[in-house]
Amino acid sequence: MGKKIFSMDVRVYLRDTNLFGNVYFANYFYWQGIAREEFFRQITPDPMFFVNKKIKMVTIEASTKFKKEAFLFDDIEVRVEVNNPKIATFDLIFTFIKKNTGDILAEGKQKIGFIGQNGSVIPIPVELAIKGIQYV
Predict the structure, then answer these.
(1) pLDDT of 103-131, one tens digit each?
(2) CATH number of domain containing 121
(3) 1 assigned to some structural domain
(4) Of 23, 44, 68, 89, which has the fewest CB atoms closer than 10 Å, so is most exposed?
């Protein structure tokens, strides 16, 4: 059985574009954040998991490489894959695909870590590792 890939759809609206009519670059980071939150919502045992456990998820690094432009009303699939798991961190890899052509619009990455209630770095929570392993 292969590695599972999380996916969600985004539609480009006027608010997402700039003066030139293409998607404003910062929206890819915004969409990364939404996809990340939805991914964690689905792999945590409870939507309030982080709040209830007093765990903070932190983004250590974030980047996006742009390949092609997206425009008003384009439908985009955002794929999320887990990569490079360590004891306390892992990477989320984002691929933005224009649905009607299959073109890769952008690729992004976030290095994720966790902070416990005492403010120190903690290992990846076991509850996440159990359900998240299918994405590694």
Answers:
(1) 999 999 999 999 999 999 999 999 888 88
(2) 3.10.129.10
(3) no
(4) 68
